[in-house]
Amino acid sequence: MKQSGVLKWNLRYAFSRKFRLDEELAAVKPQKIYLLQQGEAYDDERKAKLLSSWLYFWSTSYDKALEKLKQLN
Asked: How confident is the model at residue 2 (pLDDT cuts 50, 70, 90)?
């Protein structure tokens, strides 16, 4: 966001499903890695449901979100 500016970033987030998904996955990755290192579970299915819902403007399908989340290990 800092590189592109707040307005441009927000416009891309609002109108680009791919950008929105990529940004959310970039945020999830360190969370997931940390939890797994601590011996905690990370619920890929729950997060995939969220990423494919209205909350994230239907950024992707459930199956694609689940696939991407599982690749973050």
From this structure: confident
* Residue 1 lies inside a defined structural domain of this protein: no
DSSP string, 22-54: HHHHHHHHHHHHHHHHTT----HHHHHHHHTSG
Total-model pTM: 0.88
In-domain check, residue 42: yes
The per-residue b/e assignment along 29-67, b for 16 or more CB within 10 angstroms, e otherwise, is eeebeeeeeeeeebebeebbebbbeeebeebbeeeebbe
The count of other CB atoms within 10 Å of the CB of residue 18 is: 10
